[in-house]
């Protein structure tokens, strides 16, 4: 049986999370820059566009808010639509809840704020490892802060320099490629494979649903197929 001294220290876990998140910034950075450009085009002041990255800290929701603001959409619709788009974070929270349960309320609040798509991808991989290391939440902190810092910087670059980026670069394709790179290594069994395939197919078929509901429908479909396969 391993003792606490034999496991990675808090600082070692933190830097491991930092290193795990760094490659993902290659996809997140252009995404943040594009958001900065679109936010200004939608009529948001630079300070408000940057503040949204700090307070909301959710790329897809920020894109949607900027687009809806540019269209003059009522505030109630913007809030409701953003809520629906971010419902997937409830799935992340449910997945992480057993691991976060022993932590203090302050840790839960901090990690909950940092729990985004990309941070969840590397974090759950670390938590799923069979060792009983006591400081895995420091890994999550390192990954989350790395992503948060990269998102703030890329947003700022997009706000102040984005207009000079040629549209022909098609930077918007970088983030989907990042998500694919996150998902593929996590597919280790038949239920996982079927869940991923079901979610991908349904997301394409449901792409045209209003208020980005296709994201939620695809997530539910993937979960349902994965559970069905696991029970069989």
What does this molecule look like?
The chain is an all-alpha fold and 232 residues long. Helices cover 72% and strands 0% of the residues. The chain has helices spanning 10-21, 25-41, 46-55, 59-70, 75-85, 88-100, 105-114, 117-127, 136-161, 174-183, 190-205, 213-231. Helix 3 (46-55) runs antiparallel to helix 9 (136-161). The longest helix has 26 residues, at 136-161. The protein starts with 9 loop residues before the first helix and ends with a helix. The model has no long low-confidence stretch (mean pLDDT 84).
List keywords for this structure.
single chain; 232 residues; mainly alpha; 2 domains; 72% helix; globular
Global Rg:
19 Å
Largest sheet: none
How are helices and strands ordered from N to C?
HHHHHHHHHHHH
Q: Strand tally, please?
A: 0
Helix share of residues?
A: over 70%
Instruction: Give the number of helices.
Output: 12
Distance between the termini: 35 Å
Present the secondary structure layout.
Layout: H1 10-21, H2 25-41, H3 46-55, H4 59-70, H5 75-85, H6 88-100, H7 105-114, H8 117-127, H9 136-161, H10 174-183, H11 190-205, H12 213-231
Helix pairs in contact: 1-9, 2-4, 2-9, 2-10, 3-9, 4-5, 6-8, 7-9, 8-9, 11-12
Brief overview, please?
This protein is an all-alpha fold and 232 residues long. The chain is built from twelve helices and no strands.
């Amino acid at each position: 049986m391993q003792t606490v001294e034999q496991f990675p220290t808090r600082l070692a876990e933190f830097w491991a999370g930092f290193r795990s998140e760094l490659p993902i910034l290659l996809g997140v950075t252009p995404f943040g820059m594009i958001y900065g450009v679109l936010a200004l085009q939608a009529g948001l002041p630079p300070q408000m566009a940057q503040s949204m990255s700090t307070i909301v800290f959710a790329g897809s929701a920020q894109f949607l808010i900027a687009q809806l603001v540019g269209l003059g959409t009522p505030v109630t619709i913007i809030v409701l639509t953003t809520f629906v788009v971010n419902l997937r974070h409830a799935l992340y929270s449910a997945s992480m809840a057993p691991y976060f349960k022993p932590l203090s309320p302050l840790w839960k609040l901090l990690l909950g704020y940092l729990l985004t798509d990309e941070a969840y991808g590397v974090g759950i991989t670390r938590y799923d490892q069979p060792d009983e290391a006591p400081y895995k939440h420091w890994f999550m902190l390192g990954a989350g802060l790395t992503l948060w810092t990269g998102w703030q910087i890329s947003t700022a670059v997009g706000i102040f320099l984005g207009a000079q980026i040629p549209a022909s670069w098609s930077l918007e394709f970088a983030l989907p490629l990042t998500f694919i790179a996150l998902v593929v290594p996590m597919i280790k069994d038949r239920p996982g494979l079927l869940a991923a395939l079901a979610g991908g197919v349904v997301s394409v078929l449901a792409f045209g649903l209003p208020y980005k509901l296709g994201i939620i429908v695809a997530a539910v479909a993937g979960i349902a197929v994965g559970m069905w396969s696991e029970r069989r």
